[in-house]
Amino acid sequence: MSASLPPPLPSCTPHPSGDGAPGFLAPLLKSVLLVCLVTAALWAVLALIAIPLSGSEALQALLTDENLHWLPGWVHWLLTHPVLANVLLCVSSLVGVLACWGMLRRWRWAWGSFVALLAITAVLNGVVVWGVDDAFRHLLAQLPAETYSLEILQLRRDLRVLRVIWGVLMGLTAAAFAVLHGWLIVRLCAPDVRALFRR
């Protein structure tokens, strides 16, 4: 009596959906849609919180504090326009929601918007890395260049180590997402995917 063969392993290759779309497309769009919805709600809540805080005396005193003149210009702008910053971020998340929803309905404009958002997000990740490094640079520049204080010397060393650690971690993360977004853009621009979006 011959031994029965084990059942074949399931294939890891994504199967096309009913309209011929690659199997990865719908899960990708639904997951990004969920992330965009959550982040849009988060930015909306933060914008509402920022409305009373933006006119508070504590924030105005902070903005006029001479001890904080060293802060980078972009940090000053965020502190001066907290409501606008959160509204812009909320709108960008809503644009992502519309792009994902339109892609699920196979609309051509949504395909272009989604590809553009992938490219813009990859660039903005690099901008965030630069912004964090810029903040560390401004902070280190405020420490006395020549000092005998052991506390300040230790603080400078700690800040330099933190700058390197954060720079490496955030740089690698931004690079990984840039590669992922680049691959997605190439895949979404393939003829078999573009052919799905003709409306």
Kindly list the characteristics that best describe this protein:
2 domains, about 200 residues, about 75% helix, Transmembrane protein, 7 helices, mainly alpha, transmembrane helix
Blueprint (SSEs and pairs):
Layout: H1 25-54, H2 57-63, H3 73-80, H4 82-104, H5 108-141, H6 150-188, H7 191-194
Helix pairs in contact: 1-4, 4-5, 5-6
Keywords: Membrane, Transmembrane, Transmembrane helix
Transmembrane segments: 32-54, 74-102, 109-132, 164-190
Protein name: Transmembrane protein
Walkthrough of the structure:
It is flat and about 70 Å long. It has helices spanning 25-54, 57-63, 73-80, 82-104, 108-141, 150-188, 191-194. The model is unreliable at 9-16 (pLDDT under 50). The longest helix is centred in the last third of the chain and has 39 residues, at 150-188. The relative contact order is 0.11. It is 73% helix and 0% strand. The chain has 7 helices and no strands. The chain folds into 2 domains: 22-105, no CATH class; 107-199. Helix 1 (25-54) packs antiparallel against helix 4, helix 4 (82-104) packs antiparallel against helix 5 and helix 5 (108-141) packs antiparallel against helix 6. The termini are far apart. With 199 residues, it is mainly α. Keywords: Membrane, Transmembrane, Transmembrane helix. The chain crosses the membrane at residues 32-54, 74-102, 109-132, 164-190. This is Transmembrane protein.
